[in-house]
Amino acid sequence: MSRQRKKGTNFESSIVKWLRERLGIETIERQAMHGSRDTGDIKGLVAHGFNGIVEAKDHKSISPSLLEKWKAQTVVERENAGADFALLVVHRNGVGATRFGLNDCYMQVRDLVKVMGAECHAGESAMGLWVHVTLEDACKMIEDE
Fold it and tell me: pTM for the full model?
């Protein structure tokens, strides 16, 4: 296994462990790669009756173009998985196990609505916008009933 793949696998495993402990959802688990029909790195996340996936990225430096590429990948993988929502979780440099919830979490407004268990009557263009929160804040929205 390459060093970069091992780093990604470790980050995915850390997300699974943290989310299980933080949310108490035991169905959260890493997924096997599906080639060109990838369905995200993590499955089993549930928010307000909606099923979600997580795409995880651990990269030393992040350019705006790389982040846009990951966002597009996340949308495709959400569709491939038939998931209701998708989170893009990006490792923030300097954030370790004791502050894991400070990692970056991106999602489209359409996904945010489901994560919050809310209703939204915004237009299609607004639903495709991306929002940025911490992973901890995403968990607060998931568990807030």
Answer: 0.94
Q: For the segment 36-78, what is each residue's pLDDT rounded down to a tens digit?
A: 788 999 999 999 999 999 999 999 889 999 999 999 999 999 9
Q: What is the CATH number of the domain that holds 58?
A: 3.40.1350.10
Tally of domains in the chain: 1
pLDDT value of position 74: 97
**Of 41, 66, 44, whose CA–CA distance to 54 is shortest?**
41
At residue 101, φ and ψ (nearest 5 deg) are -65, -10
Give CA–CA dist 103/69, Å, rounded. Answer: 19
**Strand duo 50-57 + 85-90: pairing:** parallel
Return the structure tokens found at 59: 């990269």
The DSSP line for 71-138 is HHHHHHHHHHHT-SEEEEEEPPTT--GGGGGGSEEEEEHHHHHHHHT------HHHHT-EEEEEHHHH
Residue 110 identity (one-letter amino acid) = R
**Which helix or strand (DSSP H or E) is residue 140 part of?**
helix 135-143
